Amino acid sequence: MSDETMDEIKMITATLPKWRAYYDITKPRVVALLVLTAVVGMSLSVPGGLPWQLFLPAMLGIALLSSAAAAINHIVDEKIDAIMGRTHNRPLPEGRITANSAIVFAFSIALLGFVLLYALVNPLTAYLTLSGLVGYSFVYTLYLKRATPQNITIGGLAGAIPPLLGWTAMTNEIHPHALLLVLLIFTWTPPHFWALAIHRKDDYAKVNIPMLPVTHGVSFTKTQILLYTVLLFVVGLLPYLVGMSNWLYLIGAITLNLMFFAYAWKLKFNADENTAMDTFKFSIIHLMLLFVILLLDHYLLPVG
């Protein structure tokens, strides 16, 4: 990227309102997907409608703590974000906000979210949500991301717990069906993220982050993505097999997982320069639709 282009980008971003920088470091699109999966967890945990007295503070508290985790990720990764092409225009590398301001912001919304959950929902959900923040922001971002090519496989658990949080918010208990929803996202995460890692392999190599394509090569990573989509297909059948969903979910899960497998197959055996990014983008749509179908199945075809 030329110096002139960089100067133009800086001039444009300098005109953005201050609140936009704080908004951007919360990764709002990622948080929206997490909250969607939490809402599905809430809905599947109880028959009928959700009590708004629990639903509103639970949704807001989970969103705030998830946003705080995203902000801490920006803070920790500021130096490598400034080098990587995908992230160099984030608010901290561009100087739209300072690290100290971001720290105060992240701590404030984390505290508010925790208090909301503890006081208006239940302590179990508050502590589980806080554990997700610690797992993603510190265990994954500070340690695993920089320590092992299996970083996303292990660290993905932190991003997989929102359905459990939604479930415990409504019931104040950890149920096997909630853990099954966590397993769905946990299995989905590696092929989702490794597709992006293939597309951004040179970026990760440049900042010495041991993502799987950097340490084991692109071909090996493509094989892992393909194998994980097979595993995801099997895991995706479990909600139907254990009786927590009906035929609508079964059809949707089979269709979406076969499509994900098709993307992974093309990535492995017939890829072009856009296939990895196309696979990454589809994986986001896949998870969103899978949980929307779970929600529709629950209300349109209640089990039992």
- What's the CATH H-level homologous superfamily of the largest domain? UbiA prenyltransferase
Strand and helix order: HHHHHHHHHHHHHHHH
Tell me the number of structural domains.
2
What oligomeric assembly is this protein in?
single chain
Number of helices: 16
The shape, in one word, is globular
Biggest β-sheet, characterized? none
**Alpha-carbon distance between the termini?**
59 Å
| Strand-pairing-aware structural class | mainly alpha
Indicate the proportion of strand residues: under 5%
Taking pLDDT < 50 over at least 5 consecutive residues as the criterion, the unreliable ranges are 1-9
Helix content: over 70%
The count of β-strands is 0
- Please tell me how large the radius of gyration is: 20 Å
Question: Which CATH architecture of the largest domain would you pick?
Answer: Orthogonal Bundle
Q: Name the average pLDDT.
A: 93
CATH class of the largest domain: Mainly Alpha
CATH topology label of the largest domain = Tetracycline Repressor, domain 2
